[in-house]
Amino acid sequence: MLKHRARAVFLLIFAAAIGYFVYSSQQPSAKHAFKLGLDLSGGTHLVYKADISKLAPEDIKDSMASLRDVVEHRVNLFGVSEPLVQTEQGAALSSKESAYKLIIELPGITNVDEAVKSIGATPRLEFRVATADDMRAFQASSTSFASTSDQTVAYLNIFSDTGLNGSMVSRANIQFNTTTNQPVVGLAFTSEGRDIFSKVTKDNIGNYIGIFLDGSPISVPVVREQIADGKAEINGTFTLDEAKTLVRNLNYGALPVPISLISTQTIGPSLGQAAVDGGIKTGIVAFIIIAIFLIIWYRLPGFIAIIALAVYTILMLALFKLIPVTLTAAGIAGFILSIGMAVDANILIFERMKEELARGRGIWDAMHEGFARAWASIRDSNISSIITGAVLYYFGSTSVVTGFALVFVVGVIVSMFTAITASRLLLYAVSPSRTTKLSTFLISNGFRK
Asked: C-alpha angle with apex 103: 102 to 105, nearest 5 degrees?
């Protein structure tokens, strides 16, 4: 008995510590704040149709990946917290209609016109030069800046414009160094770009040429010699994937696939907050109703089930923060549903215990048999629920479906722990070791027929 009570106290202390973590990190600016979806935080949802009619079938996959990378880079310039940029392939209504879409979610951005204009604009590919002396001076003072942003600004300021830009690059491809077999990026310029590049390299031997995409450096090679033929190599410690990404960025200074806006949705912060408040209120009401039912019907075991349910709720909220799970309105609905399902296992256990008590077993024997006999039913029902949720998550085509499925599956898994482990530990800790009138009232009558 003492061992069970010590473990129960440890469990409650552990749950209280996690609960404090959840409460103390609830501010939006906190490191482990809840990650809210677009429908709860407010923002803009954009859907673009990609025109792949001029692409060869074997180039579609790479072109769509490049489109996502370029647009994601532009979206990151907005300073948006947790933006979503993804491509989607669906069934086309006709052979001439594009089945490829680009989906963009911008939490906190409600100016649709500004977002559309920035996303659809052509990215700027620029070549800038920095002297070796300036680069050494920057590296020597790199630890003296007050913040990372100050350091970034200072780094960008050492580069000056050359007049060479992405419109003057005719082709970029992957090559391999014949000595080290390392991947390098080959460049070929147009006639105009060749003349400018020849002069820039002649005047800056030993200096650095920075290749900038949308104002951010993607490669900063050193000029070794004048290059007059309009061809160049960018050497670096590239992996093959990094070299492919750089080639895509150079070849697709503009958007690699034409896109057209087909759908916009803007959700104001007040509407998102109303959804959050409604979800919290619904969850509290559901918890209270379940608590009243369990306590009236099962008495002490019902009270233990409510404590285990509180532990379940705390663990779920902590997991939402730590994974992290992007909470949507559908996800909150899945969580509320999982609260009800978390009690199912306790009800199965208590009903089994009722049967054992009716056969004349003692309280402890009835509890042991109740947990042992109910496990098979709990296991099978939860496995079927997990399979259903996994299928929804894998085949779900929208964030609404996948958000609901993820929360639901996590909830089922956590509920198995709280129902089997936490409930049993707490019930063993408070159950009387011998039969008395009080124990009959609290336990046996709690399982009346």
From this structure: 145
Q: What angle do CA 116, 118, 123 make, to 5 degrees?
A: 135
Residue partners of 12: CB distance under 8 A and separation at least 6: 307
pLDDT tens digits for 187-213? 888 888 899 999 999 999 999 998 887
- pLDDT at residue 434, as a whole number: 61
What value does the mean pLDDT take over residues 427-436? 71
> For residue 444, how far is the Cα from the chain centroid?
48
CATH code for the domain defined by 43-121+260-266: 3.30.70.3400
pLDDT band at 233 (very low <50, low <70, confident <90, very high): confident
Question: How distant, in Å, are the alpha carbons of 68, 72, 105 from that of 76?
Answer: 12, 6, 12
Does the pLDDT value for residue 371 go beyond 60?
yes
Question: For the domain with range 125-251, which CATH number is right: 1.20.120.1200, 3.10.129.10, 3.30.1360.200, 3.20.20.140?
Answer: 3.30.1360.200
Whole-number Å distance between alpha carbons of 421 and 346: 11
As a whole number, mean pLDDT of residues 47-67 equals 85
Residues 6+ apart with CB under 8 A from 49: 98, 100, 101, 259, 260, 262
Structure tokens, 325: 């799970």
Q: pTM above the 0.70 mark?
A: no
Across the range 372-380, mean pLDDT stands at: 88
Query: With contact defined as beta carbons under 8 Å apart, do 88 and 65 qualify?
Result: no
392 confidence band (pLDDT: 50, 70, 90)? confident
β-strands 125-130, 259-267 pairing: unpaired
CA dihedral 18, 24, 27, 30 (to 10 degrees): -80
309 vs 342: CA distance, rounded Å: 7
2-37+268-447 under CATH 1.20.1640.10, yes or no: yes
Residues contacting residue 366 through CB under 8 Å, at least 6 positions apart: 353, 356, 357
Residue ranges covered by each domain of the chain:
2-37+268-447, 43-121+260-266, 125-251
Per-residue model confidence (pLDDT) at position 449: 43
Is residue 324 reached through a cis peptide bond, with omega within 30 degrees of 0 on the bond before it?
Answer: yes
Residue where the block lists tokens 């916009």: 264
